[in-house]
Amino acid sequence: MDTVWEVFHGQSLKEIVDQAHQDMPTPYHATHVSVQYLNNEWVVTVLGELDKEE
User: Fold this and answer.
1) Residue 52 is inside which H or E element, if any?
2) Which of 15, 24, 40 is nearest to 32 (CA)?
């Protein structure tokens, strides 16, 4: 598998984005971030791709 996606949600956008950066599984890195405000909370979806050694 070369990609993963993680979903985070809560009231503080800053805390959710910080959590998303910390919780991205190694050796993946975030390549796309989607932010939505649904039902009075932030929903952040992060798509990560596998780091490729060159």
Assistant:
1) none
2) 24
- Give the integer Cα–Cα distance in Å for 5 and 38: 19
Q: How far apart are alpha carbons 46 and 42 in whole angstroms?
A: 13
pLDDT per residue over 22-37, tens digit each?
A: 888 888 888 899 999 9
The β-bridge partners of 46 are: 6, 33
- Residue 11, both tokens: 């009231």
Give dist(CA 16, CA 8) in Å, integer. Answer: 6
**Residue 51 one-letter amino acid:** D
Amino acid in position 2: D
